[in-house]
Amino acid sequence: MSKDFQSWMGTVLAEVEAALSEQLPAVGAIPARLHAAMRYATLGGGKRVRPLLVFAAGELVEARPERRIAAALAVELIHAYSLIHDDLPCMDDDVLRRGRPTCHVEFDEATALLAGDALQTRAFELLAAPGLAEAERQLEMLALLARASGSLGMAGGQAVDLASVGKPLNQPELELMHAMKTGALIRAAVLLGAACGEQALSTAERERLDHFAKRVGLLFQVVDDVLDCTANTTTLGKTAGKDAAADKPTYVSLLGLEAARRYAEDLYQDARSSLAGFGAKADRLTGLADFICHRQF
Amino acid sequence: MSKDFQSWMGTVLAEVEAALSEQLPAVGAIPARLHAAMRYATLGGGKRVRPLLVFAAGELVEARPERRIAAALAVELIHAYSLIHDDLPCMDDDVLRRGRPTCHVEFDEATALLAGDALQTRAFELLAAPGLAEAERQLEMLALLARASGSLGMAGGQAVDLASVGKPLNQPELELMHAMKTGALIRAAVLLGAACGEQALSTAERERLDHFAKRVGLLFQVVDDVLDCTANTTTLGKTAGKDAAADKPTYVSLLGLEAARRYAEDLYQDARSSLAGFGAKADRLTGLADFICHRQF
Hints:
The structure is a homodimer of 297-residue chains. The radius of gyration of chain A is 18 Å and the shape is globular. The first copy, chain A, has one domain: Farnesyl Diphosphate Synthase, CATH 1.10.600.10. Chain A contains 15 helices and two strands. In chain A, strands 1-2 form a two-stranded antiparallel sheet. In chain A, helix 9 (171-194) crosses helix 10. Chain A is an all-alpha fold and 297 residues long. Chains A and B meet through helix 2, helix 6, helix 7 and helix 8 of A and helix 2, helix 6, helix 7 and helix 8 of B.
């Protein structure tokens, strides 16, 4: 990772963290325990891959800063809500997230459930704020985020994942599941970033960007599966080896470790080359794909 | 209840039921179990008080039919999601709703959790649909619904409710809790209905309508507490006597049964009189307040 890219990431992460803190209900505001849980589960951790993708895609269109940060926050709040609910005992029943106790362990199940619910609401509320952009543009962004999050996107992918435990999925079935579960929101992050400029992308540009976004969504998951198998719990900040233990189909269980690694590399190269036509404006996106492919956590 | 009012209610309920069925994911669409749970928890039951309020308030402004039904559905989907999550074992742990097994009993906890999540998403998605109204108007409606549903509205009220079990609340504390937990969404229903016309209400009209909406929200809860204490489980379609058994503060525990009934009657009269200036256009709203006050279930 170049120094320049590292410094860009640091700047974005700091802006996102500060804005999240500002846009979440204040410490002590009633109901204090709910708000504490919302802040606990959202602030001070996470790779912020989705906000980074919003910012990086925003480089293609000279994104307006106020739209870009709202989009970045909205997509991260959806992600944060999904993690709280995924970790609940009735779902993955996990106790560790971002190196800390999961929300329901730190608080309680009911508070964690409501914190997830309210974070989802807050995501849509942020994008509906008056004057953020032309109203039509805001509606497009809202619709895009909702489609990616709902029963045909992220939440639907969770349901397919639940139904797949102990079942031998083939590669197309596994890719459909991940395209919904993690891919849809990653894709939304990229498209939201590209919606933050004055001008929209051309149809051809949008198609190339969308191809990139889909490849990166899949890449993210393949690398996640590799790390789940090769990294340890401390490095990951979440329980390692869980998918294998739960008899969940993964790219590693399907392809084997080495082939999964090669597949990740292929996806990365495919993602990169789809951005060739954008020139230097796509450097941040390419850098992020590199980071997602070669990360160790 | 007059024949005319009864027939109006029947027409609205049929329109809402058909539109909900159409706007929810189709039977069999993948993930089929999640979609079945979403449909199970939303269709074929419920008093539909919130959609009725949207339609009734719409009478004040000659509401456009396509906006009115979208608003009615959005608010009902938020309500349906909240009921699924409220009934979960980590919340109220209830097995009966609308005379049938609750969603997590009929399906499973994980599916019920995701069904609630995806219904919330669908509510916002509906209001973001392109071309529903002027885009600015749609954003206002989205913001209104989000504020009413989030941590300072419905979800926040649930958190205050959880924190209040076994604690002696006084009347102002109880009213604040209910103003958030049930009042905020009922108020949103009324204001959304009034946002469905070509012209907005004047500030003075809006203030009177808002007073009505707040009174009706409170009235709904007081009557709920009375019925929880006096009606049986079969009539209610949900477990009767639960709040008392759970040592939750209610208007009956606070005021006594007779005083709670008188309080409901006072709220009804106050709500009615705040609509006096609207003339016959407010007949449906008045009729609904009457229905909410004097219902037996």
